[in-house]
């Protein structure tokens, strides 16, 4: 394995993160405010995505329910990617495109937030979840890349779009993880004060 190839991954990742610093700081701050207000009002955050984005949804929920870097009471978050019985029942009885939207309809309440994660912006089941969230009077925070794909078209004016300026899935996922950590840290700072 070429050490230069490995080092290039680090350089590419750093370059995308530095570019994203300029374009994503404001929407991430808006997402923190939105999520904090929802939590402060007794609402919760639902999160969904496929593959690596499913892992990111679970990571986000774990950081809120458990803790991020500081001790605090758990915060209500649900990863819609974890209940295999629900997911397989919906996929089998209806369609895979509905595995998240049916959960949003069942669990989402007005004032809740949906964290919709799709690197391409084109995942049909995530797009359906966004539409269901709108019908349930929820706000959507979308984490995308590759120009935002179809998600850019279905988001409402009240939603927040955090679109990573990259076309490479690995780089998008790396910035999504950093964004999730920024969201968790921001929520904690609003709850507990700055360090």
Automatic annotation (TrEMBL):
UniProt-recorded Gene Ontology molecular function terms: carbohydrate derivative binding; D-sedoheptulose 7-phosphate isomerase activity; zinc ion binding
Entry binding sites for Zn(2+): 59, 63, 173, 181
E.C. number(s) listed in UniProt: 5.3.1.28
Entry keyword set: Carbohydrate metabolism, Cytoplasm, Isomerase, Metal-binding, Zinc
InterPro entries listed in its UniProt record: GmhA/DiaA, Phosphoheptose_Isoase, SIS_dom, SIS_dom_sf, SIS_GmhA/DiaA_subfam
Boundaries of every SIS domain copy: 35-195
Cofactor(s) listed: Zn(2+)
Major enzyme class: isomerase
Entry's Gene Ontology BP terms: carbohydrate metabolic process; D-glycero-D-manno-heptose 7-phosphate biosynthetic process
Subcellular location: Cytoplasm
Pathway participation: Carbohydrate biosynthesis; D-glycero-D-manno-heptose 7-phosphate biosynthesis; D-glycero-alpha-D-manno-heptose 7-phosphate and D-glycero-beta-D-manno-heptose 7-phosphate from sedoheptulose 7-phosphate: step 1/1
SUPFAM superfamilies found in the cross-reference section: SIS domain
Keyword Glycosyltransferase: no
The reaction(s) this protein catalyses: 2 D-sedoheptulose 7-phosphate = D-glycero-alpha-D-manno-heptose 7-phosphate + D-glycero-beta-D-manno-heptose 7-phosphate
Any GO CC annotation of this UniProt entry: cytoplasm
Primary location class: cytoplasm
Cofactor note: Binds 1 zinc ion per subunit.
Residues annotated for substrate binding in this entry: 50-52, 63, 92-93, 118-120, 123, 173
SUBUNIT field: Homotetramer.
Entry similarity comment: Belongs to the SIS family. GmhA subfamily.
Additional remark text: The reaction produces a racemic mixture of D-glycero-alpha-D-manno-heptose 7-phosphate and D-glycero-beta-D-manno-heptose 7-phosphate.
Function: Catalyzes the isomerization of sedoheptulose 7-phosphate in D-glycero-D-manno-heptose 7-phosphate.
NCBIfam families reported in the protein's UniProt record: PRK13936.1 (NF010546)
Identification of the protein by name: Phosphoheptose isomerase
Organism: Paraburkholderia phenazinium
Lineage summary: Bacteria, Pseudomonadati, Pseudomonadota, Betaproteobacteria, Burkholderiales
Gene: gmhA
